[in-house]
Amino acid sequence: MPVHHSKAVDRRVIRSREALKQALLTLMKQKDFDDISITEIVELANYNRGTFYSHYESKEALLDDIIHGLIGELLQSFRAPYENEEYFRIHELPAHSVKIFEHIQQHAELYTLLLKSNAHSHLREKMFIAIQQISRDELEHPTLEGINAELLSVYSNHALLGLIFYWIENGLPYSPAYMQEQLVKLIQWRPSVAKTKKPGKP
Length: 202
Prior knowledge:
The chain is an all-alpha fold and 202 residues long. 65% of the residues lie in helices and 0% in strands. The protein folds into two domains: 1-56, Arc Repressor Mutant, subunit A; 59-190, Tetracycline Repressor, domain 2, CATH 1.10.357.
């Protein structure tokens, strides 16, 4: 019996947290995050303030919970090409093994909402820190002599996230498959010469 009771409590906790998350996201479609009150959240979710504070200490903590869940799935998609491999041969990366753009498409509405809100800098920071951490902890990058490994990681991860943010902010104009192919080509592209554009010349 105690086990069944515990499961029932767990289900209620999950249900109430989910209702509070959905209420916050609904309100964020209507107004800036900074202008949303806890009273509005609980009224829309059909709970009381006591219930809210039993789960979250602030609306920022509620937003963090939403972002934490999203980033957890983002990291799963980031791991996909190498999670069952001893060596991750980046320059032999098949486009179909890249899953990060499929994840973004599945949650496009949420990413778009968060990036258009005044919580966008918070999301960007959390995403970069998470990708940087997993890259540091799970991948050992051999580097050319003289190249700072940390700077290389920062450069690579900012480039990846810049591509992702561009795609989202422009309304996902390309398919995930196309983005996967382009990412692989960009990784493999190593130009040695760039033509200058002189004023007055074509």
